Amino acid sequence: MKIYVVRPGDTVDTIATSQNISPQSIIYDNQLVYPYGLAIGQALLLSVSDRPDSADSSETASLLPAYAGGYAYPFISRWVLEQTLPYLSYLFIFSYGFTTEGELIPPLLDDTFMITAAKSYGVAPVLTLTPFGPDGQFNNNLITQVVNNPSAKQQLIENITNQVLSRGFEGVDIDFEYILAEDKIPFAEFVGEMRAAVNALGYPVSVALAPKTSDSQTGLLYEGKDYQLLGEAADFVLLMTYEWGYTYGPAMAVAPINKVRQVVEYALTKIPAEKIHLGIPNYGYDWTLPFVKGASKAVTIGNVEAVQIAIAQGASILFDETSQAPYFTYQKDGLTHEAWFEDVRSLSAKFALVKEYQLRGMSYWQIMQLFRANWLLLADTFTVLPP
Q1: What is the CA 254 to chain-centroid distance, rounded?
Q2: Is 193 a catalytic residue?
Q3: How far is CA 375 from CA 14, 23, 74, 76, 276, in A?
Q4: Cα separation of 48 and 25, whole Å?
């Protein structure tokens, strides 16, 4: 496959003719919307052949093997899920909570169809555990109450292993955020004890890590996460290498490659590469300018949606070389907007980082919206391993 950047005067038909491929493949692979308009600067993924079975088997065999995971809520479209599962090793089902006594709280919606669908595609359904309080936010007091209470901790581990056995989960992912600094060691011990119990059933335990760049990094998001201890405690880790550009921050790339690289390079000093998944965002943000701290709020947008906004507004898409990310600006209702998102160029840069450091793989937050070009590029870059 190849990446083509749209130039002035290009149409789907002229690109198809110049590349000797069908217009239908361009439309399908890039989820173009009728009447198939394009934005200047838009990155398209082009199939070198319209026949998916014509790939050179020796070339496919030479692709770097890697694991791929994706997080999803139980309200995911079944069609989106089925379109995505062929490219995954793990489906992280988001999420299960718990009480201070260690009782498990299931998602509000039934996730049985996700477990069944994942298994039908040879993908491991993974129970994702989060410490959400009644307000739906991460609650570090809840973490403290459980990881420091042997009986509550044991009760939670038993409840989770029972859920794994009874529901057919094939792994557990621990996504705890805003852990207090004093809970750093108890939390790592909790992960290790969970791993021992789940490994005994034949399944792995993973843990999500805030994007640190040093041991001494301050802030509630970082101080309770010890990379070395958690790397030793879990079977593998997910680096949450996204949210530099976020809802309440200034306009910028969600996952600038220069910042992502810093996190990976630090992580590799503490955790073996074969235990690390790179986190990849499957979304972008649209800001209204000027940014006012404490007052501004960006709107979350999908990657396909971002391009459609650019087309509708007549905006050209630019590409920032430092962050390796696309963005554009436009005017609407007298206001200036700036949008940053992911495209096949920014994803290619992230895939190159996985290959450069020979990481275990990558995991996506989240797969609720289909971005077909991402999955096609992934399959063209890696041999996705079974769980």
Answers
A1: 11
A2: no
A3: 25, 19, 21, 17, 20
A4: 10
pLDDT tens-digit readout, 216-267: 999 999 999 999 999 999 999 999 999 999 999 999 999 999 999 999 999 9
State yes or no: pLDDT of 152 exceeds 70.
Answer: yes
Using alpha carbons, select from 79, 19, 69 the residue that is nearest to residue 44: 19
The answer to whether the peptide bond before residue 262 is cis (omega within 30 degrees of 0) is no
The catalytically annotated residue of 82, 170, 177, 356 is: 177
Distance from C-alpha of 132 to C-alpha of 134, rounded to nearest angstrom: 7
What phi, psi does 334 have (nearest 5°)? 80, 5
Token reading at 255: 């996952």
Residue type, 17: T
Q: What is the pTM of this model?
A: 0.96
Nearest to 346 by CA among 308, 373, 365: 373
Reported as a single tens digit per residue, the pLDDT across 197-226 is: 999 999 999 999 999 999 999 999 999 999
d(CA 297, CA 378): 32
Q: What are phi and psi of 279, to 5 degrees?
A: -80, 135
Backbone angles phi, psi at 55, to 5 degrees: -65, 145
Block residue for tokens 């073996």:
272
φ, ψ at 62 (rounded to 5°): -85, -5
Strands (E), 21-138: 43-46, 64-72, 90-98, 104-105, 124-129
Helix extents (H) in 45-104: 57-61, 78-84
Strand partners, 339: 286, 328
- Reported as a single tens digit per residue, the pLDDT across 270-283 is 999 999 999 999 99
Cα distance between residue 264 and residue 52, in whole Å? 33
**Are 346 and 320 spatial neighbours (Cβ–Cβ below 8 Å)?**
no
Which H helix or E strand runs over 192? Answer: helix 184-199
Tokens of 59: 């070339």
Helices (H) and strands (E) in the chain, counts: 13, 17
